[in-house]
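Exercise 7. Predict the joint structure of the components listed below.
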Amino acid sequence: QKEVEQDPGPLSVPEGAIVSLNCTYSNSAFQYFMWYRQYSRKGPELLMYTYSSGNKEDGRFTAQVDKSSKYISLFIRDSQPSDSATYLCAMSLSGGYNKLIFGAGTRLAVHP
Amino acid sequence: DGGITQSPKYLFRKEGQNVTLSCEQNLNHDAMYWYRQDPGQGLRLIYYSQIVNDFQKGDIAEGYSVSREKKESFPLTVTSAQKNPTAFYLCASSIAGDGGEQFFGPGTRLTVL
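Solution:
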């Protein structure tokens, strides 16, 4: 079993839809949770960063962490064609050297 | 502009050759990392360094080597011992310590001919 599970998709939605992306994990010691967006043949770009449980909102993006369920989510409101990319979740422990464990990524396509 | 640069963007290697991928950052970060990305898989850590002249193996270090002689630079050498080197290689940096946000470079696509 992988430490971090993420549905690879692809996920196809119409422009303006609300998108929900999710990851589950097995290690309850993870403390830091991140979402990266990666366009084709580019490096990942950090979108959202949260520590421990709770919600964080930034514009059209909302990140949620539910540590009791070992489940994290990224919501995209009013999705745009420019949101079409692969979304990677990542997480790390505290007390360490900041090693990130990544999900495999979910490919999202937003069509006009 | 602050950021991370990687070169070259594309690299072709013949069987039996060693090649070196460059990574430079001007973010004044102490920690630097090398990841490998294969289709359908998440990023996997090859090597990391938290301070100059010190580095540690990640999960898939076999067939790779690194050096950290300057804070700004963390080159990765893919040796002939790496049996399946064709992949997308990503360099990242962060502040040292827990929870530092990692920022990535644009990547190098390595293809073995």
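Discussion. Chain B touches chain A through 29 residues (CB under 8 Å).
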